[in-house]
Specification:
heterodimer; A: about 150 residues; alpha+beta; Archease, Possible Chaperone, Chain: A, domain 1; 5-stranded antiparallel beta sheet; globular; B: about 475 residues; tRNA-splicing ligase RtcB; 8-stranded mixed beta sheet; 7-stranded mixed beta sheet; 16 helices
């Protein structure tokens, strides 16, 4: 299946929908983060002068995936940054019945003179929201409010 | 007529269409769509699906509505209006949108096109410098936590008290720029953190600041227009479209999460997760209402600070005071909001998502200067084609929960718009047509090209024919700032 994302333009005309796949949950979360990042800026135009660690724990993958994407939107506003890349590792604690995500956001402060900014992502919606395991890996569908 | 749905859609009038409640299991009321046959035929499948999903929500009254600028949104369609019984009905963030109190503000001037033309470049440059726009932009107002709570409680009144505006701005703003029942206790720390640095910023997407012209041949109701301060004669006006920024976005996010859990407790099921809701009278419902009002007040305060910045930019460019330039506010009105309103002796919680309040003459909620005329309604079109000033009617109060359209409404995805035209090309062709555009994002600019939107004249014609607003004036762009 492999790590990939694809924007779907035939739905939610004013907003942005995308579907994403990954062989593992880590790949799924990485690919989805890259889709959110790309909605906001051309990542190649962003330097790597800034990093932030994000740690999340949730009882299920649907919530973990959702909170991860929300965290990216939140950090964009509170730290005034856009992103170049992301690193993600997801693990499961069977004993506590929790999924853990360790993420690193890499980017730089917003600078309109140097970065190819795109559109502000307001929120990750629950419209047509889906995260599921398929035979060959993981699949998710997300609609962003922009 | 070919429609994007297999549902039965009955013609009630030439511009009002109804989907019977038998069309989908769970519908409690019919769904109604406003629009000419052409507008209805161009609506995407999502509108029909979503407006009928709304018709299934507990406590909904009369019908679920969609205005002619409607299109596929999340939860409610954009252009959606629904009223719920305050006793046994629900409240839903999906019926308000994440950009709580996204709305429009219109400022008139005594300047004419002839006064501005030679200085348009300097004016747009100054406005672009003065009003921050785009991803991650921060405002010039630095707020303590306590001051931000005052913003959330007092809205535009806070801004005017700080010197960012005139007292008359408040009397020319919906609810005088301050919704009651705002309680920052119900706003999360995360929401405060997202919004505290953003007062006075436009944002991006379809948000904009536009310098426009009122031409004589586009003033359709001269009497009403003059009451609103619009006299034509190539008069310059300024329109602002923006909302509550990160604060509202996070309030929406927080309460969708809270309502998902609450729905299980209250035994509510919905057709779309984004329609997550809670009984209005429940603790969760009341908490959201208090937080939503905080965000709505932040939006009023935000547009008030932007209005101040606009006046200051005009002062610097034209070397005259804003008072001398006649820069009075026509009106400021929300189009993403839920409000308790009285209809026929009953109180309803009216959700408007991409729809504007349009109260008619005599309504006590219409500001005194306009009470015998009706409430001004500001509708933003695409940056290439123009916008409209309308007036509310008694028929809107009787028929559409005092609501009407809010803009042109998209017909093309953002990606398709970008494939059709490049931002730089659009900027150049618009300049050749006399519209100067300053944009933070060239791809964002392409996404907002006029071709991506319905013909706003057709949309306005629909609500004018339906009688839920009347056309007052069309305002043509000459300068635009986009995030």
């Amino acid at each position: 299946m492999g790590k990939s994302y694809r924007f779907r333009e035939e739905i939610v005309l004013g907003d942005l929908a995308f579907e994403v796949t990954g062989d593992t949950v880590s790949e799924l979360c990485t690919a989805a983060a890259l889709a959110v990042i790309e909605a906001m800026v051309d990542p190649l135009s962003v330097e790597t002068n800034w990093t932030k660690e994000v740690r999340l724990s949730e009882a299920n993958i649907e919530d973990l995936f959702f909170e991860w994407l929300n965290a990216i939107v939140y950090v964009k506003d509170t730290d005034g940054v856009v992103f170049h890349d992301v690193r993600v590792a997801v693990s499961r604690d069977s004993e506590k019945n929790l999924w853990h995500l360790d993420g690193t956001l890499i980017g730089d402060r917003v600078d309109v003179t140097r970065q190819a900014l795109r559109t502000d992502v307001k929120a990750v919606t629950k419209h047509l929201y889906e995260v599921r395991q398929k035979e060959a890996g993981w699949y998710a569908h997300v609609v962003l409010d922009v | 007529m070919k429609l994007a749905t297999t549902m039965t859609v009955n013609r009630l009038t030439d511009v009002v269409w109804e989907i019977p409640k038998t069309e989908k299991p769970g519908m409690l009321v019919p769904a109604r769509i406003y629009g000419t046959e052409t507008i209805l035929g161009a609506m995407d499948a999502g509108v029909f699906e979503q407006v009928t999903n709304v018709a299934c929500l507990p406590g909904i009254q009369r019908y679920a509505l969609c205005m002619p600028d409607g299109h596929w949104g999340y939860g409610f369609p954009i252009g959606g209006v629904a009223a719920f019984d305050v006793g046994n009905g629900i409240i839903s963030p999906g019926g308000v949108g994440y950009d709580i109190n996204c709305g429009m503000r219109l400022i008139r001037t005594d300047l004419t096109l002839a006064d501005v033309k030679s200085r348009l470049d300097a004016l747009m440059t100054e406005l672009f410098r003065t009003v921050p726009a785009g991803v991650g932009s921060k405002g010039f107002v630095h707020l303590s936590r306590r001051a931000f709570q005052d913003v959330m409680r007092n809205g535009a009144r806070w801004s005017v008290e700080q010197g960012y505006g005139w007292d008359s701005d408040l009397t020319h703003t919906e609810e005088e720029g301050c919704l009651g029942g705002a309680d920052p206790e119900h706003v999360s720390e995360q929401a405060c953190q997202r919004g505290i640095g953003q007062l006075g910023t436009l944002g991006s997407g379809n948000h904009y600041l536009e310098v426009q012209v009122a031409k004589n041949d586009r003033v359709y109701d001269r009497h009403v227009a003059e009451q609103f301060g619009i006299h034509g004669d190539d008069q310059i006006v300024i329109m602002v479209h923006c909302g509550s920024r990160g604060l509202g976005h996070q309030v929406g996010t927080d309460y969708v999460r809270i309502f998902e859990k609450a729905m299980k407790r209250y035994g509510i099921t919905v057709k779309d997760q984004q329609l997550a809701c809670a009984p209005y009278r429940s603790p969760e419902g009341q908490n959201y209402f208090a937080a939503m009002n905080c965000a709505a007040n932040m939006a009023f305060a935000n547009r008030q600070v932007i209005a101040h910045q606009i006046r200051e930019a005009f002062r610097r460019v034209f070397r005259q005071s804003p008072e001398k330039l006649g820069m009075r506010q026509v009106y400021d009105v929300a189009h993403n909001i839920a409000k308790v309103e009285r209809y026929e002796e009953k109180q309803f919680l009216v959700h408007r998502k991409g729809a504007t309040r349009a109260f008619g003459p005599g309504s006590p909620d219409v500001p005194e200067p306009f009470r015998t005329i009706g409430q001004p309604v500001i509708c933003g079109g695409s940056m290439e084609t123009g916008s409209y000033l309308l007036v509310g009617t008694a028929q809107a109060n009787a028929e559409s929960f005092g609501s009407t359209m809010h803009g042109a409404g998209r017909t093309m995805s953002r990606a398709q718009a970008k494939r059709t035209i490049r931002g730089a090309t659009l900027q150049q062709t618009m300049a050749e047509r006399g519209i100067l555009v300053k944009a933070v994002s060239m791809s964002g600019l392409a996404e907002e090209a006029g071709i991506a939107y319905k013909n706003i004249a057709d949309v306005v014609e629909s609500v004018d024919t339906a009688g839920i607003t009347r056309k007052v004036a069309e305002l043509l762009p000459i300068g635009n700032i986009k995030g």
